[in-house]
Write a structure and sequence with these properties.
The complex is a heterodimer. By secondary structure, chain A is mainly β. In chain A, strands 3, 4, 5, 7, 11, 12 and 14 form a 7-stranded antiparallel sheet that branches. Chain A has a 4-stranded mixed sheet with strand order 6-2-1-15, with no helix packed on it. Chain A has strands spanning 8-18, 23-33, 40-50, 53-57, 61-65, 71-79, 88-104, 115-118, 137-146, 149-157, 165-171, 180-183, 188-196, 204-216, 226-227. Chain B is mainly beta. Chain B has 3 domains: 2-95 and 217-230, Sandwich (Immunoglobulin-like); 102-215; 249-432, no CATH class. Helix content of chain B is 10%, strand content 46%. In chain B, a hairpin with a 2-residue loop joins strand 3 and strand 4 (53-57). Chain B is globular and about 75 Å long. Classes of the chains: A mainly beta, B mainly beta. At the A-B interface, strand 3, strand 4, strand 6, strand 9 and strand 10 of A face strand 3, strand 4, strand 6, strand 9 and strand 11 of B.
């Protein structure tokens, strides 16, 4: 069993301001310490409070954090003033750990304008080589050669823990611009037309992450809001 | 529980359209049986198979079914090259069961004239033996934020929490002095969430209702064979207009709707806006849809680019949507409307232009008529809790005349002339209830 790594989310910077119409804008930069080599998918949001009452909740920010890039920026905005002016805030976050990866090497179309559809190769026992632990399966890939660039579409079926599963897709190992992070509402995922620079080979790495419980950082009661 | 027996009994009107470049658009209408409640909410997704291999899936979206309208349209847009081999499709869906609603009567803050207004936060009693019920199923009310400002720009939004965020949703409604407003169904998706702002004029008292929903498991219908692929419909090939075709200039008497569309990608500020104003950023498009009161034909003009004529004798009441469907590719490429959402936009525009209140209500757009003194704008803060709420949506503004006026259409130059001072008799702004680019 892998050793549990302590991971801490730390608030680095924060700014809050409000204009005369009562629009609040806030931004908080957080840093994740103890990020695993395989990265950590991080979901986080801000809860604003006023006199102990919840007054506004931000959207969720989702990012794959790595040792080299371990910061996530959260923002919140809305109309609150007077007796609803926030005086404290709390960060809620959920970390997802890497559970398995699948590498798929789809067939490539040779001519511009053509495409290739690839289904998973099988093992000797008839099992798909694109199946991952947790019941997550890459079902098919289609690569379209458009003017020398590859447009990749793929279908994935997640296992029974689909609602706690995140998928990071990376095309060709050195192509960091192709990092993708997807979070889904159903067991069936369709990645449509992901653009990858044309090359002789194409490796599609699907990394599956499993979400742990949501946590809260301690309530911060010193919230300074600048009037602008 | 009877509602668990909801099932797909048939599908009809399936259509597979082969677009250029190897892209396909599959749409079908699914009819449900076993509906034992007056209305239910379902979430659904279309799965497409090449032979028996999963090839594509649409984004999951929510719809409401009633015993009178127990069907829903779904569509998926995907690449399949030359489209070899048989294709099948099936509907994946899950039902949301509703819980007993809870009601709250928060006190109103005083009406004040300060620009930001007066605020109050209502919080349900946290006493152990309080008779006040603060949860509806998995959804718990954390607080209600009320903003009261002199005039009619009051707003209410609600902060909620859920222990099962991936499988729960909610509806809220607010009523004050017989004025009522309610939210669209929203999924929680995270442990805490602020609802959209609901705008209504507060007076004397406020009654807030919260109804929570829990999702059941995803189920799949049987598989159905895809119909033969057909090319997309084009209307450019229609004869321009039989009786005036000798002359490119057509003169009619009727109405003109000026339609401004914007795929809003970013919003700077929750102020007063109209689509295509500087506050909202994203590609825009302006169209003119002219109605000929004699023939009941519709003319669509995309200035400088094209003129489309949809004759009532060919298309009857569907003439406006047929004219709009002719610019589908322009909506997809120029405006970035996803193919699966084009039909929703066209359906809304048809309902709006023909003033069909029920169809507007049933559309995938939140529609707000503007008063004469609104200056063609709405206050975003009354409808959205933050700028990201308002962004990633298709926004529409329409201005239309009610009285018939003289209109001149030049199909050679693709231009339209009319007295635009008469055009603001019926103005509305709308935004898609679905998010784009998610």
């Amino acid at each position: 069993m892998a050793k549990k790594i302590e991971q801490d989310l730390i608030i680095r910077e924060k700014t809050f301001n409000i204009d005369e119409a009562g629009y609040i804008n806030g931004g908080i930069t957080c840093e994740l310490h103890g990020t695993r080599d395989s990265g950590t998918v991080t979901l986080a949001f801000i809860e604003l409070r006023s006199n102990g009452k919840v007054c506004l909740i931000s959207d969720v920010t989702k990012r794959l954090l790595t040792k080299a890039d371990n910061q996530v920026y959260l923002s919140v905005s809305g109309q609150l003033d007077g007796k609803a002016l926030p005086d404290s805030y709390q960060i809620h976050y959920c970390l997802s750990r890497h559970i398995d990866s699948v590498r798929a090497e789809p067939k490539l179309p040779s001519n511009m304008g053509s495409s290739q559809f690839t289904i998973p190769p099988k093992t000797l026992l008839g099992r798909s080589k694109w199946n991952s632990s947790g019941g997550n399966k890459v079902k098919s890939l289609i690569v379209h050669n458009r003017d020398g660039e590859f447009y990749v579409s793929g279908a994935i079926e997640l296992g029974s823990n689909w609602e706690r599963t995140h998928v990071v897709v990376r095309y060709n190992m050195d192509d960091y611009s192709s990092y993708l992070f997807e979070n889904y509402k159903s067991p069936f995922i369709f990645l449509s037309d992901q653009i990858v620079e044309g090359s002789e080979t194409l490796f599609c790495d699907f990394s599956f992450f499993k979400a742990e419980k949501w946590h809260k950082l301690p309530l911060i009661t010193e919230l300074v809001i600048d009037r602008v | 529980m009877g509602k668990k027996e909801l099932n797909v009994v048939s599908n009809q009107n399936a259509r597979l359209v082969a677009h250029s470049g190897g892209y396909f658009d599959l749409s079908a209408e699914f009819l449900f049986g076993g509906l034992q409640e007056s209305s239910v909410i379902i979430e659904h997704q279309l799965l497409v198979f090449a032979d028996e291999i999963l090839l594509a899936a649409s984004e999951p979206i929510c719809s409401s079914l009633t015993s009178e309208h127990a069907s829903t349209w779904v569509s998926a847009y995907f690449f399949w090259g030359k489209g070899k081999g048989p294709m099948n499709y099936q509907l994946s869906f899950r039902l949301y069961t509703e819980h007993e609603e809870c009601r709250f009567s928060p006190a109103l803050p005083p009406e004040i004239s300060r620009k930001s207004g007066a605020f109050s936060i209502f919080e349900p009693s946290k006493k152990l033996f309080s008779s006040e019920k603060s949860s509806s199923g998995p959804i718990k009310l954390e607080s209600i934020v009320i903003r009261n400002v002199a005039g009619e720009d009051d707003s209410v939004f609600i902060n909620l929490s859920s222990k099962d965020p991936g499988n729960s949703g909610f509806l809220i409604s607010c009523e004050s002095n017989n004025a009522q407003t309610e939210s669209d169904f929203q999924m929680m998706e995270k442990p805490m969430k602020s609802s959209y702002s609901l705008g209504l004029h507060l007076h004397d008292e406020l009654d807030v209702k919260l109804k929570g929903f829990s999702a059941l498991s995803w189920e799949q219908s049987s598989k159905f064979s895809c119909p033969q692929a057909t090319p997309p419909e084009t209307f450019d090939d229609e004869p321009l207009c039989e009786n005036e075709s000798q002359d490119d200039v057509v003169r009619i008497s009727g109405t003109v709707a000026v339609i401004s569309l914007q795929h809003v990608e970013e919003v700077d500020d929750l102020g007063f806006v109209t689509p295509a104003s500087g506050i909202m950023r994203g590609p825009t498009k302006t169209l003119y849809l002219a109605f000929d009161s004699d023939s009941e034909d519709y003319w669509l003009i995309e200035e400088g680019k094209r003129t489309v004529h949809a004759a009532a004798k060919n298309y009857d009441w569907e003439a406006p949507s047929k004219a709009l469907a002719a610019i589908t590719s322009s909506l997809i490429v120029g405006l970035g409307v996803e193919s699966k959402n084009v039909i929703k936009l066209i359906s809304y525009l048809q309902a709006n232009i023909t003033d069909e209140a029920e169809d507007i209500e049933d559309s995938a757009y939140t529609h707000k008529y503007l008063s004469a003194d609104a200056g063609g704008e709405i206050n975003l803060s009354l409808h959205f809790s933050d700028t990201s709420d308002a962004a990633k949506r298709i926004w529409v503004s329409t201005a239309q005349n009610s009285d018939y006026i003289d209109i001149e259409i030049d199909a050679a130059t693709n231009t339209i002339s009319f007295d635009d001072e008469l055009i603001s008799q019926r103005e509305a702004i709308a935004w898609s209830s679905y998010k784009t680019m998610d």
